[in-house]
Amino acid sequence: MADILPIRPWRYNRKLSASLEALTSPLFDVMSDKQRNILYKLPYNSIHLSLPEESGGEDHVTKLLQEWKRDGILIQDDIPAIYVYYQYFSHSSSPREYCRKGFICHIRAYDWDEKVVLRYENTIPETVNDSVSILEKTELHSSPTHGLYTDNDFQLEPYMDAAMTDPIYETEDYQGVRNVLAVIHDAEVIKKFISVLEDKTVILADGHHRYEASLIYKAKQNALHPGHIRKAGYNFHLMYLTNTAAADFIILPTHRLLNNLPDFDEAAIARKLEDDFIIRPVEDMYTLPDVIAGKQWAFGIMFKDKAFKVRLKAESFEKLKWPFPDEVKRLDLTVMHYFIIEKVLKIPGKEQRQSDHLSFNHSFPDCMRNVIQGEVQIAIITNGVTIEDVKRICQSGYTMPQKSTYFYPKTISGLLFTSINELEFALPFYAPF
Question: What integer is the mean pLDDT of 209-229?
């Protein structure tokens, strides 16, 4: 099953890493324009490697990376290691502090049909192509994707906890999350990590585009090198792995926002919803998440000055004509995209992924503010999917509707980078892996 290796990452010079906040950055898909513009002004921020400014492009990244290596801005570790990465955070669902535990390593870039790394989302080709271009030019993984494995016996947690008694980095990020990094050099312990993952499949939680870029790059390199080495760098991908059996595991819902709909008419939309939904007015729209919580096929509909709870009539489910297996059809999000966004709002399913009318936000207060201030016409509030939903869909071989999950918290870029250039990727001769 999952073949993993320790890493010899490039990390910021200690003189710079004393100010990690100036070096780390959010992932590109959750970064606001304001954040991006601020980070571009920081000369050594990781954004210059992960999301280059358009004026510079991939060639600029390659040159910059070479300069940073030459000038000692980045220094490569000599000893292979597993990097332990803990994220301490709080959430409105509970007053306690959570801790998501995981570790960073290289994982073989398995093609989807090998069914070792499983996906539940499709990708957008243009975004994948951008990632491929940067990977080809730099041969650098600038941030790990997020993968999930399941180990009900928690075999690796004692080793991770022990490493965390002596962390190497600690920083609070834009989410208010405390990110802590530690390292494991002990070869016997690293072998334990490799052994535990050998019989596991991995669900790709975050970073579908970056992972698919690795698959494309691997295929190109394998075509150029027919007698390729199985452990060549281009066959591997950087990943942060967390255990789904842990309690501190949060998936936030991703709500739908709609704007610039032609012939927009609140009353007409409400009448169309009555065909398939039971509708109840909600006086205080702030309570919508609580009103729909735990109820199958229940959604909140917010207009500028009114809100409703809508719940699909049981007999209407049979009208869902999309050619999906039952596991996908029964998802709240599939029901919402079919009955509300396609049937009522008239955006066909095949056009929804690219629709200019549809956007996404995991923050309910943001959605409410957007509607009240007239920035959007409608917000559709939904429950989050569960990890059981994700596992079920992955096993079915199908995918969920776009933006189905928001694994919280997001990881950050800049704590470490790994090279797949063979001279920098290959483990030293004395490494027993």
Answer: 88
